[in-house]
Write a structure and sequence with these properties.
The chain is an alpha+beta fold. Helices cover 36% and strands 24% of the residues. The strands form three sheets. Strands 5, 6, 7, 8, 9, 10 and 11 form a seven-stranded mixed sheet that branches. A four-stranded antiparallel sheet has the order 4-12-13-14, with no helix packed on it. A three-stranded antiparallel sheet has the order 1-2-3. Helix 6 packs across helix 11. The longest helix is centred in the C-terminal third of the chain and has 27 residues. It is elongated, with a radius of gyration of 30 Å.
Length: 407
Amino acid sequence: MFIKVTKSGKNRYAQVVQSYRENGKIKHKVLLNLGRTDKIENDPGMQRMALNLMNLARVKEVININRAGKGQIVKWGDIVYQKLWEETNIAETLGSCTKSPPAWFDFEQTCLYLITRYLLTAQEENYYFTADIPANQFYRTLDILGKNKNIIEKQLFPDPQKLKNPILCLLIPVNFKNTSLESMENLDFDYSLRRVQVMAIVFSDFAGRVIAQEIFSHRRFGRANLVQEINRIRKTFQITSPVIVTDQVYETNLLQDFHYISSAPVDIPPEEVTGIHYGIKTNLRTLRPEGILKAYHLLEFFQENFQPGKTHPSLQWTERRIKGHFVICFLAALLGNRLENKLDRAGKKTSPVRIREALNSLQFARFQAGNSSYLLPIAGQDFSPEILKHLGISPPDTLIHEEDLTL
């Protein structure tokens, strides 16, 4: 049964109509004429009858659409990284950084906010589970992370026996646009361009798991810095021969005595193509071309994701905050790689880009009706339910009260 509204002349009439099938055709039968719609509107008797029918049908709630406010789209894929965060000892490690003196804000949650933004989007967007943070809280977080960089890295080192050889040593130049006039003791500040350029050394295995990282002055970076970091990693992880991967064209003496994968100018006849072109050169003889390309793709991935500006539009880059930025990148890489490996073990081969797209497709339409707030789930990408399933997250499949949301 349903209510049918028909128009006759200038008036509209409401009827209770029943559908039935006769000789294979759908027909309608009028059970009750309710009268003109302008007479029904605000009629106390009709309202009482409607309420009685709702009680008999056990209707829990009716939303008055006319009283509903404008909807707002909010993303909620960040809950996935909150779940992963709880499975790790990252919060415990970060907690040891603010014991003395204690932080005046929730330091661990601010770090999680920055990490999830870094993993999910390059834009400032509206996410459901975490709110925006003021600039001074953001700066203070980077200060604390930069100060405790070595302690955090040491406590989060994975078991050396579980590392997959060979280890990659990725050389990544990174620029920071700067408005701060604070002097840089170990990094170079170009006052004409108001820019700091650093060389980041990131150690990773072929599965994309970040092991350690360090930064140096780009202008003064040389073989001594490289040997220093490689010796530190060798001592910590008992790694004999890391593979240096870079897209910079360095002099031979920098990479001498190391295994390397590097960019190199390619000689192409001018009649075939114009401009300077680069290829990949290596002195590795045991690694297949597929492995060489994979190492270079990992370099490109980290080079893109270690660039500043993805977590917060900060321009006050002091030396300590630059170090704090790389700690955020380091932690984000650890958390992102944990999710990717969890899905790989479940037989769901994927990539960081696909995961990001799937999580960003998880959205609610939030709107207000009367004194209540409601959430309407919006269907995400096909891969997003797989991620939620393996994290034990059960999203609502219908309109719910916001206060009833549990994930």
